[in-house]
UniProtKB/TrEMBL annotation:
Signal peptide region: 1-22
Molecular function in Gene Ontology: phosphorelay sensor kinase activity
The protein's name in its UniProt record: histidine kinase
Keyword Nucleotide-binding: no
UniProt domain Histidine kinase: residue ranges: 422-643
Annotated source species: Puia dinghuensis
Keyword Membrane in annotation: yes
SUPFAM superfamilies with a match to the protein in the record: ATPase domain of HSP90 chaperone/DNA topoisomerase II/histidine kinase (SSF55874), CheY-like (SSF52172), Galactose-binding domain-like (SSF49785), Homodimeric domain of signal transducing histidine kinase (SSF47384)
Principal EC category: transferase
Length: 785
């Protein structure tokens, strides 16, 4: 520790010798005189007293009519007192500075760091740099962060007039905090290129190191210590390009600031959390579980604050988190000291690496608070040293983790299965309320415009349900075990709803989205509307994604037609990028697109076409493609649908319930359901058609409330507190009750049918359900009595 203290003391004493750390010319009352400075192969800070116009966004033309104050630049607003009063960090202001240039000078450039949180810079009356949009109200203003380097247009004048508008409504800190650099354009652009190269090189080193350790974790015995360090490296690599100079923002200029600032803060809080967990797992005998858990809990709590609170809130707590961060790193050093005393394997390397990391955070935070300049070379060497030393500390674990790989893989598969099962149940339950309430609203005679909106809402909810089912059941699709329904549906309505749902996406890209429906397609068909909708939606969405201009056309064409069946060709044509002939056979593979450049340019998982092809193959249908590079593509398939016995319904309307009320009038039912929204949906559907519904919230209450003289049928949820539906049904059957008991479940039918029928249930209704499905099953069992 004494050596470390001496190293830090030497570093502090060495600071005045760092280039750029000394004080050059400073501005006084809005003017800085650089006429005696040499700008050749050099650049200077233009700091000092700038003219300041609080609560005014002035242009160069309007400066002369305003009276300025003079404040130091760059200084955060919270540290400025104007007329004896502090300035709020939120608001807007204008800064102005006149720069007197030397007669002999090179081409001038400027480097402008980001401010809190948007700015516009005028140079001699012309906007030359801008981050976001500074405005007088939060609704009009937009924040953005990136470091910009610009070349000042050459002119005969030896004077530069800089006017900077700044607005902040989103961050706890407001105003400028880093110096603007002025000097030789070539030097500034060289500095910029070096900074960007440094950022991406260091990020690449961290990312590759993290991926390397992640590979060790995956292909070894799943030692979680290696995993935590790998995740730490990967997560922290973002900070190299997503903070400070924000080199990544320069590449992704359309990135939403409210997302990137959360990613930036999360990359810090979660990195420290991962480092704590990593240290605990590396030397569990030398660390105190309670201390580690407390620090981890604080990091996770701050991460949750970042995710759920406005930016103004979580940025205000950063200073407290930085204090805790130093405590975490100091405690990690104590753990490594203890491990070194006990001669743990690799402890010396871990101790040295933590000392290096502590030094990195020290100089980083001193720079953050403006005490020292950026020391990029020192930071680069320190980061490389840290990861190298930690690599040495972890290298001995590779052999140990290899033996546990099979066991960990099996656990992962079980966890995946449980996760998918839980997700299916949790998503279906709220969707039941959405779909059910939409059906009820459609039956309450809405206005035509409301009816159309509700129709789109209902379609979108059903489509979401279909997408969720496809993702959750993808393994079953690959194995050909997924079931295909055969129920009546209206194919033109599905097509119209898909086009309506994707119209905004097409409009945003300036693409014309067209729909052609054969007039002979005027009958209800029998098939799987969810799967059909999923396939068509995937094809249309895919066409829009890969089309930059022109149109996308969905065509439904009738081929052979008879009283019993209709053959329909469904075709999606686009004027997009097209596909090379040799690539057309691979686009239906999962996670695959035509080439890697397309994947980077257009994104996506590469699952859409694979899922569509699998669904169609299960129905004996082949999905085909014709394409010409640069002209577009056409995906099409031909399917024969049986004609449904039902008459065609009006598009967009909920099926009529006429004739149900006499059948359900005064019929007493017992609804056993613990979810209030699901109770509301089912009870309203039934009571609207004359039924009398009593409600029990668990199985025990159902046993107590059942009246065999009144109740003719029970609707039984399977998962409830106190007593679930299986146990309640078995007890009812043991009591001799013979009335129909219908299961209500958010699980997949195949998962519950065997247990349900074994318990004595007579049928299963899967959530979310439509009114027609509920009425059909209820009446079927009532009429069978």
């Amino acid at each position: 520790m004494r050596k470390l203290f001496c190293l830090v003391a030497f570093f502090v004493c060495w600071l005045p010798a760092i280039p750029g750390f000394g004080q050059g010319p400073v501005a006084h009352q809005g003017v800085i005189d650089l006429r005696k400075a040499s700008l050749f192969n050099n650049y200077l800070k233009i700091s000092g007293e700038w003219a300041f116009y609080r609560n005014r966004l002035l242009t160069p033309d309007s400066l002369s009519a305003a009276t300025p104050d003079y404040v130091p630049f760059p200084v955060l607003w919270k540290d400025i007192r104007l007329h004896g009063k502090p300035i709020a960090s939120q608001g807007y202001a204008t800064y102005a500075l006149t720069v007197l240039l030397p007669a002999k000078r090179p081409r001038i450039g400027l480097e402008i760091h980001h401010v809190y949180s948007a700015y516009k810079l005028y140079v001699n009356g012309v906007v030359q740099a801008q981050n976001g949009q500074p405005e007088t109200t939060p609704g009009k203003a937009t924040p953005f962060w990136v470091t910009r380097t610009i070349a000042v247009p050459p002119g005969e004048s030896d004077t530069l007039v800089l006017v900077m508008q700044i607005a902040n409504f989103w961050h706890a800190r407001g105003g400028p905090f880093k110096d603007i650099l002025l000097g030789d354009k070539d030097e500034l652009f060289l500095k910029k290129n070096q900074d960007v190269a440094y950022d991406f090189m260091l990020a690449g080193c961290m990312l590759m190191g993290g991926l390397f350790f992640l590979g060790l974790y995956i292909f070894s015995r799943h030692d979680k210590t290696i995993l935590y360090f790998a995740l730490f490296c990967i997560l922290y690599s973002y900070r190299m390009v997503g903070t400070d100079n924000y080199a990544l923002h320069a590449l992704l200029s359309d990135t939403n600031w409210f997302i990137t600032i959360r990613v930036e803060y999360l990359s810090l809080s979660l990195s420290i959390a991962l480092f704590c967990v990593y240290t605990r797992n590396l030397y569990p005998e030398d660390s105190h579980p309670l201390a580690m858990r407390a620090m981890l809990l604080f990091c996770l709590l701050y991460s949750a604050v970042i995710l759920v609170t406005p930016t103004m809130v979580f940025t205000r707590f950063l200073i407290y988190f930085l204090m805790i961060m130093f405590v975490c790193i100091a405690y990690a050093m104590f753990v490594y000291l203890q491990a070194a005393r006990h001669r743990r394997s690799g402890s010396l390397f871990a101790l040295l690496s933590t000392a290096v990391m502590l030094f990195i955070f020290l100089i980083g935070n001193l720079n953050y608070f403006g005490i020292i300049p950026e020391l990029r070379g020192v930071q680069f060497v320190c980061y490389i040293s840290f990861f190298f030393l930690q690599s040495l500390a972890l290298s001995h674990r590779f052999a140990e983790t290899f033996r546990r790989a099979t066991f960990q893989a099996q656990q992962g598969l079980r966890a995946k299965s449980e996760f998918l099962s839980t997700m299916s149940h949790e998503i279906r339950t709220p969707l039941n309320a959405v779909i059910g309430m939409t059906h009820l609203l459609l039956r309450n005679k809405p206005r035509p415009d409301q009816e159309n909106d509700l129709g789109v809402l209902l379609f979108s909810a059903n489509n979401l349900l279909g997408i969720v089912n496809n993702i959750l059941d993808y393994n079953k699709i690959e194995e050909g075990k997924i079931s295909i329904e055969q129920i009546p549906f209206d194919l033109p309505v599905i097509a119209r709803n898909i086009v309506a749902g994707l119209q905004n996406t097409a409009d945003e890209k300036g693409i014309t989205l067209l729909l052609d429906v054969d007039s002979r397609l005027d009958r209800m068909l029998t098939g799987d509307p969810t799967r059909t909708s999923q396939v068509i939606n995937n094809l249309v969405h895919n066409a829009i994604k890969f089309t930059k201009e022109g149109s996308v056309r969905l065509c439904l064409t009738v081929g052979d037609s008879s009283v019993e069946a209709i053959t329909v060709t469904i075709r999606v044509e686009d004027t997009g990028i097209g596909i090379l002939p040799e690539k057309q056979h691979i686009i239906f593979d999962r996670f695959t697109q035509a080439d890697s450049s397309t994947s980077r340019s257009y994104g996506g998982t590469g699952l859409g076409l694979a899922i569509s092809k699998k669904i169609l193959e299960l129905q004996g249908v082949d999905l085909r493609v014709t394409s010409e590079p640069g002209k577009g593509s056409c995906f099409y398939y031909t399917q024969r649908f049986p004609v449904a016995a039902e008459a065609k319904k009006e598009a967009g309307k909920a099926p009529a319930a006429a004739g149900l009320e006499p059948l359900l009038r005064d019929v007493s039912l017992l609804l056993v359901e613990d979810n209030p929204l699901n109770v509301l949906v089912a009870q309203t559907m039934l009571e609207n058609n004359g039924a009398k519904v009593d409600v029990a919230t668990n199985g025990q209450e159902a046993l107590d409330r059942l009246d065999r003289s009144r109740h003719r049928l029970i609707l039984m949820d399977l998962h409830m507190p106190v007593m679930d539906g299986y146990e309640a049904t078995m007890l009812l059957r043991q009591r001799g009750e013979t009335l129909p008991i219908i299961a209500l479940t958010a699980s997949m039918p195949k998962e519950v049918e065997s247990d349900a029928f074994a318990a004595g249930l007579n049928g299963v209704i899967v959530k979310p359900f439509s009114p027609e499905e509920l009425y059909r099953v209820v009446l079927q069992h009532l009429q069978a009595q």
